[in-house]
Write a structure and sequence with these properties.
Chains A, B, C, D: It holds the Pfam family Transglut_core. The structure is a homotetramer of 280-residue chains. Chain A is of the alpha+beta class. Chain A is 17% helix and 41% strand. Chains in contact: A-B, A-D, B-C, C-D.
């Protein structure tokens, strides 16, 4: 078990009456238990917390008048991810995939797996099924793409990234997700906090469905998956924007942190491929 | 109440061991009650029925060896759609949208609303909110696009269609869905059977979330919405393909039908805009 | 006749041996005669001037070692554009277009007219042929697009712009060029200096081939076409980049100017549609 | 010297007054000399031959009333391509490229080299410059893409093909051209007849500018480059469509042939990489 303290401080200058939707609160499940949590809005405004079922993403909705706005979130979380020997994790045969998991084979806005069937098959079609095939997809993504902040934007898709060969964490995740889906492996996007991410920021990574559960992967190798604290899960980044703005507001501040408080288990290295980690 | 008999007969030549996923069975809810239903597979193979929660799409999964395959589905359904005076149906304010409905504001694979914000605002931004604004989006879509079978394919998106100005039912739905989402109106894709569709085929249309529930719309004006029998619901056509094939099989036959058996209520004309219809 | 003084001052920090290609010198033809001209490179390096036939674009090629680099160009030009009564300028029938002009009906990198045939026909197909139809295309472009610096980049195409409904001068030109070509009217991109452009910068506009010659148009209405001094002509902006860099250099300075020195003819208003102007 | 007889027979049903532009006549230059040539139009209509300078593409323009139309073209050509030892063909340094050749570094409609700079550099950046680098680009294109008739259409671009990993001859050429340009090697599209092409059809291949002249390449390996008879040259397939139709006509027949009549020189194998061939 690891205890991790996460949080963020987000500031805006609001120019007209605006409704915000924040997706910054940590998910609560058996692998990720909240010890303490606080959300402060300055100046104070009434807010509403609502959850997207069945994924459990927690949204904070807030309508404010013009003026400055700051949102402070902090949480202490006990992580109890499930680990498995990667060599023993196989792929779930298509005939046995649960109906709700089948959805994660469908192409989505930023992960156009339907256009990449031959691409994926050419690259990964001869590999043995299993955890190692998703690892191969991550390695390929890591090796082929340059991590280049500023090289992509909010409407950039996996196919765009495969052309320009560069991107940031969300792009790496979209590429790997697309390739997994194209190979018949259900895959979905996860947004979260990440210990040891440098510079600190929100992080985007992904999960692939293998052997009857969802395993965490990160093609960027920027931080250890054991230090990921889940905020939200979705088909791709479109489903887990940390902030959605209806109105007119400009960001003035963004600080994000994630620190390991105490640890019984040492975090595995980023890029570790022998231990499979599951937290969903 | 209208009683509608629907069905389809789908044939394949299967060339290698193949798993099929059929999404052809009618949805069951309070507005759409199944009187009788049958699914026959020739030659007989064991199949599994599974449902995608929470939408209730019913999937039939079937693994078969090489050889011919025919699937026969027929159902008799009592439709009891809810009607409302369109002039009294307003938009649900963003602050009050249920969390699970917020998802249908997100862009999806074939409905890239994130790229069309200014486009939608230029066209529909000055209109009064409400049912009539979605009607305006449907009218615009109907007037701007040519219905041209063969002009689009399985990877065609709303933006593609807006460039080429032509498409089929799924494309009309994707364009209207994208424009609704860009205007802040949740919208989703519906696949179904449709009475009086000519030539008979599966149909694609959409729902917009207004005044606390989902209302049916069809920008093609090809058939009356009161005669739509829902098969499945999703973000866009990616979620409700009537047939998904893992393996090697070629289609040899496709027949689809939808006939009104008896009717207490006359079907409204396609393109009717005064009565709002809801069946979700 | 108008006398116009134009020029630019471009600075770079060169980080490795780099070859520059500058397309900043004014074109010389019967409508545009150079009274005086100078090009200074600081620190001095040998450069080569070469011209792209048959268009007459003049390129300056320069290879430099690491260090700062400044290029100063200034020219005084007598403009003697040909004017015509716009109402008397018709379209040249397709059967009579010169072979070399036919090339400007072909789609190009940033002007994908081949995708917009139906789009253009729907919008402009019922209009009478002639200068007024190109004017209608310019008006439509001006009305539909927002002029929004920073909203597009170097790989943005006309179709991208039609989706996002915003762009800068080169994007307005690409949209209008695409629509002209789709209507069967040869059109090409022109880069130049422009009197009264605010803020001063290089400008991009276009020419359409009507009645046997090329007429100037500018869908942005930012500056009078009579004050345009041609630098280069091409299929689209890909052909007339003011600076092309092979190596590693960062821009440090860009100043551009165009001032009317003396004038016998008053410049027509931007957006004037009664007098057709030709300078090619 | 090889003597090659080429020709085509193209039939249409013309539904309304239509103007055709045919680009089917062979180019005439020092490497390709026309021994005899005929063009028959049935029923007879006056036609005009015009040439695009400076490339020398020959266009036949023809306006016809409704009814059937057949065009018969045949030519006997003496091919006298220039050969060179591939190992001695280097790249022309950027500083020495002629101004008119620089144009072929620009991206074009179907060859978006501007989007593939990093892609090309990752793949080919460490290779030694010269003929062998273009060969490497051809080999990569051949190995990565599946030749799959029907998988692409008239608006398909190099980037589309790199995603879907399949195409036909024009797509192979567009990919290779894009990669060459992205590496700083001028490249252009060539349409022609091709001996030993099976099934017979018009063919699309490309030229790269090396060591001061244009060398022929074909990434499909479908036919020997020595048996290519040039019809036209352009930036990409947009410039050399064999038939352009303004009006309403449907193709009813297309036959194309290219036969070696007599030969002093044996045609080199497709995929030969030791002898460089130049015919421009």
């Amino acid at each position: 078990m690891n205890q991790i303290q996460v949080g963020c401080r987000i500031g805006y200058q609001v120019n007209s009456p605006t409704t915000f939707l924040f997706n910054i609160s940590v998910t609560q499940n058996e692998h990720q238990q909240t010890v303490s949590e606080s959300l402060e809005v300055e100046p104070f405004h009434q807010f509403e917390e609502c959850a997207v079922s069945p994924l459990g993403n927690r949204l904070v909705r807030l309508s404010v008048p013009p003026g400055p706005l700051t949102v402070n979130y902090r949480a202490t979380v006990n992580m109890n991810a499930q680990q498995a020997d990667a060599t023993e994790v196989g792929e779930t045969p298509y005939e046995q995939l649960p109906a709700d998991v089948l959805t994660y084979l469908n192409p989505s806005r930023y992960a156009e797996s339907d256009k990449l069937l031959r691409f994926a098959m050419d690259q990964f079609g001869t590999l043995l099924p299993g955890y190692s095939r998703v690892t191969a997809i991550c390695n390929w993504t890591f090796n082929e793409l340059a991590y280049l902040p500023g090289s992509t934007g909010p409407t950039t898709t996996a196919c765009d990234v495969l052309e320009q060969k560069s991107g940031v964490c969300r792009d790496f995740a979209h590429v790997a997700i697309s390739l997994c889906r194209a190979m018949g492996i259900p895959a979905r996007y996860v947004a979260g906090y990440a210990v040891n991410l440098n510079p600190p920021d929100f992080h985007g990574f992904f999960e692939a469905y293998l052997d009857g559960r969802w395993f965490l992967f990160d093609a960027t190798r920027l931080a250890p998956v054991g230090g990921f604290v889940r905020i939200g899960t979705g088909r791709d980044a479109a489903d887990v924007a940390f902030s959605t703005i209806r109105g007119d507001a400009e960001g003035t501040q963004l600080e994000v942190w994630a620190n390991e408080q105490e640890s019984n288990d040492q975090l595995l290295d980023p890029g570790n491929v022998s231990t499979a980690v599951s937290s969903a």
